[in-house]
Every structure is written in structure tokens, then in C-alpha cells.
TrEMBL record:
Protein name per its UniProtKB record: Uncharacterized protein
Superkingdom of the organism of origin: Eukaryota
Region of interest (Disordered), residue spans: 110-132
Lineage, opening ranks: Eukaryota, Sar, Stramenopiles, Ochrophyta, Bacillariophyta
């Protein structure tokens, strides 16, 4: 049995104490869903064509070489991640009012003579190499 919209609205308002704004918001959501379903049904025959077109674009980019390699994407993601972490660290350090010193294992720049001397001392102290 179908209930007319006016009777349905009156029942919801009087018996269930639903506000008019709630009813209007619910109707708006229903209408949006109806439009989306109608759009999906109308564009169903075009969907196959869009998939074929997207596949052709990917293949064309791969052949021409304009596509970004996954290795390059991975490098960009690591750089972005590193930048984000460093920014977060600096923001926390600046908010705290003091900058915490970090020990970094970075090589020290030395003169050529001392580098050569330390290299020779390492070679002299290293164990003999085994030949296969």
C-alpha cells in the first residue's frame, strides 16, 4: 500500500516528532542517491569505452616513455617522507624552545695528508685478504 507524501510527512512530524529540517535533509540525501543511480545507469554503456581509452593512454605513455618509472616514484616518496619528518622534528623543536642536538655519523673533512696517513694505517692493521 502506497502512502501519499503529505500523509507520510504528517505522520513523521506528529507521531515521531521529526523536525522539518530533518525531513528535508533526508529527502535531499535520497534525491542525491537517485540522481547518482540514474547517472550510473545512463553512463553504463560508455564505461567500457572509457576503460579501453585509459588502457590505450597507459600503453602509449609507456611506449613514448613519458610515464614516470616506479623507481623514480619511490625516490620521490622517500624524499617527501624525509622532508616531512624533518619539518615535524624542527616544528617540535622550535615549539619546545630548544633544539635537541642529534649525533650524526657524518664524515669529517680532513686534509689530504691526514686522510692518506689514516688510510695507510688502516691497511697495515687489516687482516690479510684471502684469494679464492
Amino acid at each position: 500500500m502506497m502512502v501519499p507524501a503529505s500523509v507520510r510527512r504528517t505522520m513523521l512530524r506528529d507521531e515521531f516528532a521529526a523536525s522539518i529540517t530533518d525531513l528535508n535533509a533526508a529527502m535531499k540525501g535520497v534525491n542525491i542517491s537517485k540522481r547518482q543511480r540514474a547517472h550510473t545507469l545512463a553512463s553504463e554503456h560508455i564505461e567500457v569505452l572509457e576503460e579501453v581509452l585509459e588502457s590505450a593512454k597507459r600503453k602509449f605513455k609507456r611506449v613514448v616513455g613519458k610515464a614516470v618509472s616506479t623507481k623514480k616514484q619511490a625516490e620521490e616518496l622517500w624524499e617527501a617522507s624525509h622532508d616531512a619528518v624533518m619539518n615535524e622534528y624542527l616544528e617540535k623543536a622550535l615549539k619546545g624552545g630548544e633544539l635537541v642536538e642529534m649525533e650524526l655519523d657524518m664524515p669529517q673533512f680532513v686534509s689530504d695528508e691526514s686522510a692518506t696517513d689514516s688510510l695507510h694505517s688502516l691497511e697495515a692493521n687489516s687482516p690479510p685478504k684471502c684469494s679464492p
